[in-house]
Amino acid sequence: MRKGLSQKELEFISQLELKKKYFFTRGDIKSHFSSDNEMNVYLHRLKKKGRIIKLNKSKYFLIPVKAVNGKWSEHPFILIDETMNGKEYCIAGKAAAHYWKLIDQIPFEFLVYNTKKHALLTVFNARLHFRKRRKKNFPRNVARKMHGHSFTIATKQESRQWI
Questions:
Q1: Does domain 7-62 sit in CATH 1.20.1070?
Q2: Would you kindly state where each structural domain of the chain is located, as residue ranges?
């Protein structure tokens, strides 16, 4: 399949880029299509071309046009927050220890406790390991902000166990 974009693909991609909305849902682009089936076809084509990445059932990440050769990177904490829709999760493990500067090693795997799913997801060379736990068994956590985006991470005291 060729890597060029069709007129319709270019139309809704440029609209999302103008709004600087790189994380989008199916509802955000629904107005550009006559049916859900047509939307599914275009989303599938864009996934094959490497222009979008599916994060969960209804949320996608648009790789910007300014990305060189389709290579782009987003901070894993922001990806985790968007994948979990900002609800019922906590970033733990070595990723939390690195965030609090307890270790110097840059984590390869990001451990995420959540109430919904078990999964191992690789996005932009970041390995996101989702583990299902009850909310009462989450480590104590705190909400933080990065690049204007909030996320939930284990406290510094809880992260000391990963040293």
A1: no
A2: 7-62, 76-162
Q: Are the CB atoms for 92 and 155 separated by under 8 Å?
A: no
Nearest Cα to 59, choosing from 98, 86, 99? 86
Ordered per-residue pLDDT tens for the chain, 163 residues: 457 778 888 888 888 999 989 999 999 989 889 999 999 999 999 999 888 999 988 899 998 877 766 677 789 999 999 999 899 999 999 999 999 999 999 999 999 999 998 989 888 888 999 999 999 999 999 999 998 889 999 999 999 998 8
> Two tokens at 138?
């989450």
Q: What global pTM score does this model have?
A: 0.84
Bridge partner list, 129: 111, 120
Q: Confirm if 111 and 92 have CB atoms less than 8 A apart.
A: yes
How many angstroms separate the first and last alpha carbons of the chain? 47
Q: Are 53 and 47 in contact (CB under 8 A)?
A: yes
Among candidate residues 77, 72, 82, the one with its CA nearest the CA of residue 93: 77
